[in-house]
Design goal:
By secondary structure, the protein is mainly α. It contains six helices and no strands.
């Protein structure tokens, strides 16, 4: 669900640059939903890291929504939300797998 919400945020400026109606608040609601999902799937230290990343992302999205920051901060916030979700799910496993493949010595026949 968190990934689906983050993908929905990729609409970018069609959400927040048009008019200030209820649709413009959809990215903020989806961001809060992602933070809720991260809290709900608590996994210790990595959730704290994911939540801190998600809160930074939420501040970028909010600031771009309110036009306090340029539009590219919205995109950066969306990327950070993807990273937060990935950190809370299997990021460290992927890094460990890559590390093992690089360090593994090739077998000679």
């Amino acid at each position: 669900m968190a990934y689906s919400s983050a993908i929905a945020l990729c609409g970018g400026d069609m959400f927040y640059h048009g008019t200030n109606n209820w649709v413009s608040y959809l990215p903020l609601a989806l961001t809060l939903f992602i933070i809720f999902v991260l809290i709900r799937t608590f996994k210790g230290t990595r959730t704290y890291l994911a939540l801190s990343t998600a809160f930074i992302a939420a501040s970028f999205i909010l600031a771009a929504h309110q036009l306090w920051l340029p539009a590219h901060f919205y995109d950066l916030g969306t990327v950070l939300l993807f990273m937060a979700i990935w950190v809370n799910s299997n990021f460290f496993h992927v890094i460990e797998t890559i590390k093992q493949k690089i360090v593994a010595k090739p077998k000679h026949a």
